Amino acid sequence: MAKKTVLRKPKGFLDVYKHKPGAEKDRTHYCPGCGHGILHKLVAEALEDLDVVDRTVLMSPVGCSVFAYYYFDTGHFQVAHGRAPAVATAVSRANPDAITISYQGDGDLAAIGGNNILQAANRGENFVVFFVNNAIYGMTGGQMAPTTLEGQKTTTTPYGRNPLTDGYPIKMCEVISQLYAPVYVTRTSLHDNANVRKTRNAVRKAIQNVKEKKGFSFVEVLGMCPSGWKMSSTDAQRWIEEEMIPVFPLGVYKDVTDEDRSSIDRPTPVHEVDRVLEALDVTTEKAELLSKREVEPRYANPSIRASGFGGQGIMSMGQAIARVGMKYGYEVSWLPSYGPEMRGGTANCSVKVQENKIGACEATEPTVIIAMNRPSLERFEKILQPDGTIIYNSTLIEVEPTREDAEVYPVPITGLADDLGNTRVQSMVGVGAFAGVTDLFDPEEVIKLLPEMFGSKASLIELNEKAVRAGYEYVKENF
Amino acid sequence: MAKKLLKGNHAAVYGAVLAGCEAYYGYPITPASEIAEMAATLMPKLCRTFLQAESEVAAMNMVYGASGSGKRVMTASSGPGVSLKQEAISYSAGSALPCVIVDIMRGGPGLGNIGPEQGDYKQVVHGGGHGNYKCIVLAPNSCQEMCDLTMLAFELADKYRNPAFVLTDGVIGQMMEAVEIPQTVAQLPDKSDWAVMGTAESKNLINSIYLDHDELEEWNRKLQEKYRSLEQNEVRIEEYMVEDADYVGIAYGSASRVLRTTVDTARSQGMKIGMLRPITLYPFPVKEIAALPDRGVKGVLTVELSCGQMVNDVNLALKGKMRSEFYGRMGGNVPSSNELLEKFKELFGV
Q1: A371: which residues sit within 8 A by CB, 6+ positions away?
Q2: Does A64 touch chain B (CB under 8 A)?
Q3: What is the pLDDT of residues B304-334, one digit of tens each?
Q4: Closest Cα in chain B to A88
Q5: Is residue B66 within 8 angstroms of chain A, CB to CB?
Q6: Helices A114-123 and B56-68 meet at what angle, rounded to 10?
Q7: Domain range A297-478, its CATH number among 3.30.1510.10, 3.40.920.10, 3.30.200.20, 3.30.1490.10
Q8: Which fold does the domain A35-255 belong to in CATH?
């Protein structure tokens, strides 16, 4: 005896459209003859047959399918106009086993979300896009879409789409299929039964691809919009065949699903405290603080402005002073000049090393300036506090400071670095000179910090050690 | 606990990682880029997500997606980028999605420059996107707070199911200070009753569309109730020498650090000046500021790196009950502490 056929909604649909407002919770909001209803049914059937209804997360876009979430028995995101591929990207990465579907119309996908779809496709995100191309904005009342045909009348092309002013219909399958990452790109139509069957197969293949974590699948579906086109349903079907398909040829544009590509596997995030602290490179031991040294009052709580050419290591000079200050238990702050200034021009930084909590962190009136080139000396000696200290690089600065109240230390910083065989270590010569002048810290304590500042390269560490000592000793021997 | 010398921007990422942030979606922009760079370094080490999005618009929509999927998620930017993010920030607020957005403010309007400014106050504190919504806004003024307040931002965002901003300026983002890194990780809350996680139990709906006018009004009333609760419970401030102050400076972010030095200098010269620093810009410390006249304060000076944005909220709080003055610098300029002291002298005759 033949099995009795029971006609029912596929399980991919909700029995009752609970999210739909109003009394009619058993029918869709779509117009008679609309393509969305057919495609919805094909998707719902496929979700049931592939046994993924419960794992599916659907993006409802802005457009006629904004209410797709009324119908499907799945998880739902209603998303901003054009952004479904961006949201779907994060959804599929957050829950890699989810079957993520981005359901979009032509204005949403090809106009306002044009970049979002291209980039998601190019990243090869593991989700499927169902792209309904009906050559018009349906929801907003029949305006021009990026896929509107040449000469087609819409409410915003009342004289017909003119390529000279409105451009040409954009062909998304042709564009997307040029990218490496997408695995399946196809265009089908809903205008007759044979093509609905082909669409059915494409829908299933695309969802299967996501299930198998093969990556990005893109199914463009030409759908009828009798209301927007102002035609009967049968005329709309005919219009697809006669007008749309010549512009948007049907067929598979790309299919590499049989190629041996790696599957889109995402590792499980780690939250275990030990591993987190290890990743942050946080030691659990409290560091022993060094006892603070006796410092002449003029050098206590220094507010320092270090400055020079980009490339003279001004930033590391300042950081080294801040780091060593920390070892003695001082409050420290370091503030760089940032942005274009650091690319080629002058670079400067403010460093404060103080007993008490630091307020303003920019050294607007420094007590010490370290000038590595002439423009730096000329700029910052102007703001030096009365009776402040100037350490300047006498190798490159041939003039003397004009501030007569200042205590001045000319140190051939670049020259001392050159003597060691590498100009690049001049910043550590500067740090050594600063230690020599102020006695704020032991230069050997800076040397202990070099590995954490410059990495473990032995030759570089050794050279920088010599540089710190050279700066320090020069000051001690000459002043 | 050991301290680490960290950039403010980096400290924010440390806080996020400790708070259990599982995904970072961002786009480069000065002076916030180090946040994305540090996230790109740290997140993969813990098998978490880092993605450099195609645009600020996409990045924030990705945040929307990750948040709706039940994950703790963060993005960061600066003024021009935050302007672009406003679309999805409104959607996130409208869909009651928790997330953290760090804004390292720079000079504007337009492309402006990359110097420190506080010109995003209005677009962040008063909601730059469409509709009646509020974001929680925390305003760190040190590298330590960049870490701590980012962690707090995640907690508050989840507690109230609302986007939370960490709002500061280029100075705090770019500077380095010693930061004590907390040695614990956050407990992640259960979000299965509302998040969409691709399971039979989580077939929820993330949504901000309500076609029926009454329904949308009702939803807005619920949001407003949440904001009233935030205003009741989550105001945070720092007071410095307000107790006996004749005049009080009000500032946040790097301006508050300069002001602190001004207060110290003023006190050393016998002038009774204090500082009130809002740590939460939303909820704004309305009661705390309104109480100043009754505490014997004779006038306030609001200091901002802007033409005067927060000062409007100060004035609304004071309702004209006390003299309220403003001093601001713009274009990337930061006032010196002496400049502020001169302002106090000039305006109040102290």
Answers
A1: A307, A308, A377, A380, A381, A390, A391, A392, A393, A397
A2: no
A3: 999 999 999 999 999 999 999 999 999 999 9
A4: B65
A5: yes
A6: 70
A7: 3.40.920.10
A8: Rossmann fold (3.40.50)
